Structure formats: C-alpha cells, structure tokens
Amino acid sequence: MNPLPMGFLTLSIYLTFSFSLFHLTHPLCHNNERSALLQFKQSFLIQDIDQTPSWNLEENSECCSWENVICNEDTGYVIELYLTGLQGSINSSSTLFNLVHLQSLDLSYNDFSYSQIPSAIKNLSKLSYLDLSSSNFSGQIPSEMLELSRLESLDLSGNNLQLQQPGLRSLVEKLTKLKELDLSGINISSPTLNSLANLSSLTELSLQDCQLQGKLSFLCVRFNL
C-alpha cells in the first residue's frame, strides 16, 4: 500500500483542527434548548411558513442557525427569539420558559387565543427586551412580570389586558431600568401617573387609549430626557 502524500496528511490535520477549533469558538446549541424550541413550535399552528422552515428534529440540527433564533457566540445559549404568526394558546407549562438565558423576546403579532400572560414569564429573568404586542393576550398582567428587573423595553400594547393588581405604580417601582414602555389599549385602573417620575431612564412612553383620567389623560405621552 502506497503511503499517503505528505500534503494530503497536512491538509487532513489542518481541516480536523479547524473543525474542532470552530466548535470550540462557536459551540453548538444545547440539546435541552433545541428540544424546548421544537416543542414550543409544535404547540402552535404556524400561519407563516417562512418563520421556522429550518427547525427540524434531526439530532445534530444546529438550532443557533435556525431562523429567528440568535445564540450567544461564546456559550451557545439562545439569547434572542423572534416569532410571529403563531396560533394557539400558551400557559406556564410552555417550553418557552425553559429558555432561561433569553435576553430579547419578540412574540408580537401572534394569536394566543385570549390566553393570559403566563406567570412563568418570571423564569426569563435575563430579559432586557420584551414585545408581546398585538398577540391576543387577555386578563390581568401577572405580578410575576415585576420580577423582570432587567427590562429596558416593554411593549404590551394591542391586547385585551388589565393593569390593576399590580397597578401602574408597582410596575414603575419595580422595573426601574425601563427606557421604552408601551401600554396602549390596556385598562389601567386608578393610575398614579406621578409615579412615572421614578423612571429616570424612560425615553418613550405610550399610554394611548388606556382610559386615563385627569390632567395627564392625553392619548400619547413621550419623554425625551
């Protein structure tokens, strides 16, 4: 048997090393998060087929390369998720809430069939951006949302939601890092609008159609601090 050319061996070693180095610097997504994403997808009717065409059940499928999924380049954990066009209900047992490293979650323009915002939202404690607008949520905004203390942007507009217990004051006192807040269309009872002064980092606030009363009962408030 003729020995392999030295150049071929060198190339093979280089490719093997490069492949290993790539996976050291670009870790594959974690199996539990891949499974959580797939189970979350399977719990809904997806109206827009372009949202998740590459999401599949193959064991070696790299979920960090899936549409609308972004992972941390160092750890491989899912840190951003953007999905629209979902139809179906959602509750605290959803595998979405297993993605505990999420920093940005956009589930706007879905149809969650008048579901309440699940209390398990508190599991996503690393969120800095949360958009649940126009997604057919209903009921009281859960107090557990106040545990998302890292939030800088929160949009709950366009849903049939109520902000009573907790009220606006509690939300403002807990979510002090908010820069953008949109509660348009939410029924806010007995608001204490003076408490908004506690949001020193706030730059944009929309309270359109919130049934507010008093001298600050205009449709849209914007701060440029």
Automatic annotation (TrEMBL):
It is found in: Membrane. It comes from the Eukaryota. Keywords: Glycoprotein, Leucine-rich repeat, Membrane, Receptor, Repeat, Signal, Transmembrane, Transmembrane helix. GO terms for cellular component: membrane. Pfam families: LRR_14 (PF23598), LRRNT_2 (PF08263). It is a single-pass type I membrane protein. PANTHER family: DISEASE RESISTANCE LIKE PROTEIN, LEUCINE-RICH REPEAT RECEPTOR PROTEIN KINASE EMS1-LIKE-RELATED. Belongs to the RLP family. This is Uncharacterized protein. It comes from Acer yangbiense.
